[in-house]
Specification:
Length: 160
């Protein structure tokens, strides 16, 4: 575990132009997944619905198969547990993600916190904290929230 952490810090501390693209991409994926996992654990209950939403989002957004997504989430969980705070993850994303990518990440995060049917105060607080650390202004966060709610409404079973 310490070797994985050491590798993460060494590679993520390289200047962007010096980091090999595959290393930078993996670090960004780890950082995004670590943030998602932090949100999933925010209310002290990582439900099956949250797990399914998270795994599906990781496979979809990163183009991974089931095994690759599991591996990424496993490493991200190790990183999350070993991190003293969220800054190392949010800083990496803030520096390398475009506004559009941050919006997509925020939408995935909102979808994750709503996937269990409840928004806890801790989840709401953490969403606002992470968005601030990502330099994602409130109007953008609100838009991502509305889109996530809309998707969840579309997926909800309908009674005709």
């Amino acid at each position: 575990m310490l070797d994985a952490l050491r590798k993460f810090f060494q590679s993520s501390m390289l200047p962007a132009e010096d980091a090999p693209p595959q290393t930078r991409d993996r670090d960004l994926r780890l950082a995004a997944c670590a943030l998602l996992l932090e949100l999933a654990h925010a209310d002290d209950e990582f439900t099956d619905d949250e797990r399914a939403h998270l795994e599906g989002a990781v496979r979809r957004h990163f183009g991974l198969d089931h095994h690759q997504a599991d591996d990424l989430l496993h490493h991200a969980e190790l990183e999350r547990r070993g991190a003293p705070d969220l800054w190392q993850f949010t800083n990496l994303i803030r520096e390398h993600y475009s506004l559009g990518q941050k919006m997509v990440l925020a939408e995935v995060m909102w979808g994750l916190v709503y996937s269990d049917g409840e928004l806890s105060a801790r989840e709401d607080y953490l969403m606002r904290k992470v968005s601030k650390l990502l330099d994602l202004d409130m109007p953008y966060l609100s838009e991502a929230r509305k889109r996530a709610e809309s998707v969840l409404d579309d997926e909800a079973p309908r009674i005709d």
